[in-house]
Amino acid sequence: MPIDDQSGAGGGAINRWQGEEQMQKTGFVPQSGAQETTRQQRRAVIASLVGTTIEWYDFFIYGLAAATVFGPLYFPSDDTFAATLLSFTTFFLGFAARPLGALIFGHFGDRLGRKSTLMATLVLAGGSTVATGFLPTYASIGIWAPILLSVLRVLQGIGVGGEWGGAVAVATEWSNTGKRRGLLASGPQFGVPVGMLLAVSVLAMMSHFGPPEWFNSIGWRIPFIIGALLIFVGIYIRLGLIETPVFRNMQEKETIKQAPLVTVFRDHWKEVVLSCLIRTGQQAPYFLFTAFILTYGVTQLHLERSFLFNSVLGASALSLFTTPFFGYLSDRVGRKRLYIIGAVVMGLFAFPYFWMLDSGVTPLIVAAILISLPVHDMQYGPQAAFIAENFPPSVRYSGSSLGYQLAAIISGGPAPLIATYLAHDYGGSTAIAAYIVVTAAVSLVAAVLLRDRSKDDYEND
User: Is the predicted pLDDT of residue 175 greater than 60, yes or no?
Assistant: First the structure.
């Protein structure tokens, strides 16, 4: 029922209060509340963006530390290669745990609501990160150091694994989002370059504050510990979030699934598999472009760590623009078409990327790193909407989360391990470039097979 306009000094406040009260109860916005709809939609996108930024900051801080300091501190060995490999193994544990997070939080997100579930993922991932900053090294507590490091990484991965599907749902499950769904869904994706930018910036600053000895003992811990402040910011923003109208609609119509995961595995397994596979040629290269490059640049190219940090920082800054741009572009040219183009471009870029790195020419090295993330974003920008649209509302959180996070096991997590092995075994970059081409081909085939449902009903099963 529409709310009549109120006149007088307190009329506007009463109108806004009534609109918010009705939305809290029903999830539907009154006819006169179009402005309130826009405000809540904006708040939902901001809440998704801020939350994913914080969680990816947590995740990337670990990856960057694994590439630079965790090897000697938690896995001491006379063999640098072995220590690095063990360090990246704990990095992989976070990826292996992400599908578990998708299963756990996807279930609750489709059963209890998007908002409360996203609060839990934020606390779990952030708390694990802060605890890592206080963790003693191998020299202090022996074998317990790598064991506890691995446990915290798993908990962090579970939290991050439960975040994405809910963040995308919150950002897109409001009215009048159809023509802008690609752009709005790129909000949670936008949190990735922002999180990376923050992580690299803070770690780079710490590396400049003192000598390497200080950084290896104290400096690297500070970015982990200040994650506590980010958690409070995220909680504050998400507390003001209203549950999506789509989920409220399911509550009213009593269409909420009692066992959403059963429905996903029974009716939507093909979409889960294809959602996982389209990420192969996006996620594996991403962690080579941002994490592995730090190890490769120092050990193989003999570059300064600060130079690599700054270059990756520049690429992350570019990604702040290219991620939403390609999300927007997918609303214009079609998500499937743009995704296929992005997979092809990634395959074509693989060998030139390493040719420029291996040239030893500073401008070419910088160019390779700067170009790498915009190339990646051609797939990443439209990806969230492309995946979420393939699942109905009753299983959107669990289905899209599971498909998205399963890729962590087959592509993102193993990528630095595989690249480290290929560089060590073959003594060059050719095999690594070929590996990127293969991952891009997998994404290309999967994108061709995944249906484009951007015109389908997004609000009803």
Answer: no
* 34 dihedral zone (left: phi>0; alpha: psi -120 to 50; beta): alpha
pLDDT for the residue numbered 403: 93
Written as six digits, the tokens of 216 are: 């290896």
Task: Determine which helix (DSSP H) or strand (DSSP E) holds 107, and give its type and residue range.
Answer: helix 80-111
HSE on the CB side for 459, CA within 13 Å?
A: 14
**Angstrom distances, CA of residue 344 to CA of 66, 271, 340, 442, 447:** 31, 21, 6, 11, 11
> Do the beta carbons of residue 121 and residue 241 sit within 8 Å?
no
* pLDDT (tens digit per residue) in 103-137: 999 999 999 888 889 889 888 988 888 999 999 98
What is the 3-state secondary structure of 401-446? HHHHHHHHHHHHCHHHHHHHHHHHHHCCCHHHHHHHHHHHHHHHHH
Kindly report the pTM of this predicted structure: 0.81
The C-alpha atoms of residue 164 and residue 8 are separated, in whole angstroms, by 44
Map tokens 């291996």 to a residue. Answer: 358
Q: What is the mean pLDDT of residues 349-356?
A: 96
pLDDT at 275: 96
Residue 76 tokens, joined = 């001491």
* Residues 339, 249: Cα–Cα separation, whole Å: 31
Count Cα neighbours of 220 within 13 Å in the Cβ-side half-sphere: 22
Nearest CA among 40, 156, 20 for reference residue 100: 156
Q: Tell me if 167 sits within 8 A of 384, measured CB to CB.
A: no
d(CA 15, CA 299): 63
CA–CA separation, 176 vs 292, rounded Å? 41
Yes or no: say if 55 and 125 are a contact pair by the CB < 8 Å rule: yes
The pLDDT of 407-429, averaged and rounded, is: 85
Structure tokens at 31: 């006819």
263, two tokens: 């429905």
For 443, residues 6+ apart whose C-beta sits below 8 A from its C-beta are 277, 278, 279, 280, 281, 282, 339, 343, 346, 379
DSSP 3-state percent helix, strand, coil across the chain (nearest 5): 80, 0, 20
Q: How far apart are CA 237 and CA 240, in angstroms?
A: 6
| Rounded Cα distance, 197 and 199, in Å | 6
Is residue 400 scored above 90 in pLDDT? yes
